[in-house]
């Protein structure tokens, strides 16, 4: 087991290097970092430009350029952003913290509701509850996050205050303008709508996974054995049913990180929430290479990490799987 | 005794012969929601195909002389007007036309490429299979919007490529870009199907009788996986339409020229209309997009049930 995990982790590092190299090429070709630097700093001196090229590894050769960028990156000699020449790390750190808060909240709410609904649907396949859950999940999948976000904004930004005379859920930012310091209630109120938008997708997806996975398990022989032993229905369901049904679901959950990050990007932009999604789109729009590269490295690394976790958790949870 | 058995057989085997296609159609017709969705989608397609007849104004035509902007839904403009007084209903039909075109074209390209790559990878196995599946895994795990934007700009900067598939903001380029991402999911499905089929006796028989690899793929493997492929086709259409809408929403979509619009562009306008409270501009484009994707998803789900021969076992 340990050797398997070690070998898979060892593979992750060359993959990370290869993928970041490809991202480096794609960003260099696509955003033209030098031209966007000149556009943002029209009066930059020649030495400033040379320094910018040096720090970002923007030499003429892609391979040597990548390695000089990599060297600066791992030694934390990060270049400043091209617009306003700000330090990248503090900004990135805040964005990640905000996104992580939103992502964790949405995933927790979504997964717990989704799994519960999925279990209830699987108990009586073809019954009224099952049909209702299935239809609702279908509708949830068919509504893209930007559409549910727009409609919720319309409802809460315009009509709620018109009908009830107060704002229940604010529709932008993490805090109202002018607020400093920490305020849990305000923060939760601001997070409610974006969390809901991301959670809809999560609920729809996970209720379907859980339903089909549990249905497979409920038809298996060991369920009949458990019943013939005289265990209570609840105990059979929890100990033998749900526990086994969770194995594939957990694996899929680890692979789903990309979809959740994607949903966050869209949602954050609509609700003006200062997370990685806003960070990415504004940096991408400006062609801000120094801001983009560290974010991409983190995204690639987390995708690889969760892939790895999926493989390992699958191997741990399902003893039938042979590792070598 | 013999008489009894014969009598039993005679009275109970009067079942009309049905081809697999007829059986699939019967199962599909049993799916009420899918039938309703097919009807709705059919009406929508009809309205789009007959677009000069079904629309009331031109794409850029104002409904009346100014002041004509932001008129709420009325007899003059059934779904209201936008910021410069154009009829939202007519624009929605023109926009749906462009979006359906993008969806269908890129879905067909994705499915074609996905079938070829998936079948070859599954059938040959080995190094080719490993590399292809690793690459698709990585792409599918990556946040879709990030990958889409980065690759879009990269392709847009390659001179010879834009010479072939058009400029970044053209429809051709969007179709190419969405197909570039679309084939991977299809390839994975087809590969799984081929892996399951290739050990079966009829493939062995075909190989023993001297059939070439491409003949087996074309004549046996693809026709036998037609069900999952059709399901993948419907989901590709939804994926492409919503991909175009996402890109347009953030301002990276196609600019279909002065005489056209797309659903994504209309939904993008909705973003601005939200804060001001012009609800019709926000609501109706979103509704059309949701109806289209809901209908196609339901049809795809019913197709999956209909083409799965195991579905009869339980009945």
Provide a descriptive summary of the structure in words.
The complex is a heterodimer of chains A (324) and B (315). Chain A is mostly helical and 324 residues long. Chain A has two domains: 2-74, no CATH class; 90-286, Orthogonal Bundle (MetI-like fold), CATH 1.10.3720.10. In chain A, 78% of the residues lie in helices and 0% in strands. Chain A has helices at residues 2-31, 33-40, 46-56, 62-74, 88-123, 128-142, 145-164, 184-218, 221-228, 233-255, 257-270, 276-286, 289-317. The longest helix of chain A is centred in the N-terminal third of the chain and has 36 residues, at 88-123. The radius of gyration of chain A is 24 Å and the shape is flat. Chain B is built from 14 helices and no strands. The two termini of chain B are 30 Å apart. Chains A and B meet through helix 1, helix 6, helix 7, helix 11 and helix 12 of A and helix 6, helix 7, helix 12, helix 13 and helix 14 of B.
Indicate the CATH topology of the largest domain in chain A.
MetI-like fold
Order of helices and strands of chain B: HHHHHHHHHHHHHH
Largest sheet of chain A: none
Estimated radius of gyration of chain B: 24 Å
**C-alpha end-to-end distance of chain B:** 30 Å
What portion of the residues of chain A fall into strands of 2 or more residues? under 5%
Distance from N terminus to C terminus of chain A (CA atoms, Å) equals: 9 Å
State the CATH class of the largest domain in chain A: Mainly Alpha
Tertiary shape of chain B: globular
What is the largest interface, and how many residues per chain?
Answer: A-B, 45 and 43 residues
Number of helices of chain B: 14
Quick one: how many beta strands of chain B? 0
- CATH arch. level architecture of the largest domain in chain A: Orthogonal Bundle
